[in-house]
Amino acid sequence: MKIATYNVNGVNGRLPVLLRWLKEAAPDVACLQELKAPDEKFPQAAIERAGYGAIWHGQKSWNGVAILARGAQPVETRRGLPGEADDSHSRYIEAAVGGLVVGCLYLPNGNPAPGPKLDYKLRWFERLSRHARSLLDHGAPVVLAGDYNVMPTDLDVYKPERWLDDALFRPEVRNAYADLVAQGWTDALRALHPGERIYTFWDYFRNAFGRDAGLRIDHLLLSPGLAPRLRAAGVDRQVRSWEKTSDHAPTWIELAPD
């Protein structure tokens, strides 16, 4: 079973790229972030023609998350995180698909930092951690996939010294990620590639992709019962070189049958 996460940076503007990648990579489950489209503008018909059922949680111009399933219909189990009733950002959606619980998330960026945006990011991280703990307590196999907007270690950023004050790399953000993983989650890509410098994002500016000046901010976390089924993990970095593509590349895992 192949599960991927992909920040599409505008699902309608990048639709040809998304459809090409779905055809070539054929993930069984794809978690999308930054749809930048309200619910009624999600390209459901095109996604269905590509062979995927979908659920989505959209928002005009910003945010937005979706879960696609090849040849199946994801069954929505949650829309939004608990804990902040007035939070209007569309950043989390969850579904049962293929015998798994899949949470698709788009964690806040948090810049400029320090400030209100970083405070919101850390509160959102706390809410995610509480919900993640509740998922573990239920004991079902779970994947939490998405754009976490955090580089966990120096190995996950091309020049760590340049990012020390950035909200994607500040100590309190990395600590929040470490605390989440310490609940018992496995960072799938890092588990199979412990010493490799692997990136999932390259800025559009200053020829970042050409220079391989990247960041690893897209992660797939596996619950303890699911981690032994992990067989492969990687990044479809060639997608970042396509015309009119996102600044992220799809990141994926392969799981052995249960």
TrEMBL record:
SUPFAM superfamilies: DNase I-like. One of its GO terms (biological process) is DNA repair. Its EC number is 3.1.11.2. The record marks 218 as: Important for catalytic activity. The keyword Transmembrane does not apply. One of its GO terms (molecular function) is metal ion binding. The active site is at 106, 147 (proton donor/acceptor), 248 (proton acceptor). CDD domains: ExoIII-like_AP-endo. It comes from the Bacteria. Mg(2+) binds at residues 7, 34, 147, 149, 247-248. Signal peptide: none annotated. Probably binds two magnesium or manganese ions per subunit. The record marks 149 as: Transition state stabilizer. Its cofactor is Mg(2+); Mn(2+). Residues 4-248 form the Endonuclease/exonuclease/phosphatase domain. The record marks 248 as: Interaction with DNA substrate. Keywords: Hydrolase, Magnesium, Manganese, Metal-binding. Belongs to the DNA repair enzymes AP/ExoA family. This is Exodeoxyribonuclease III.
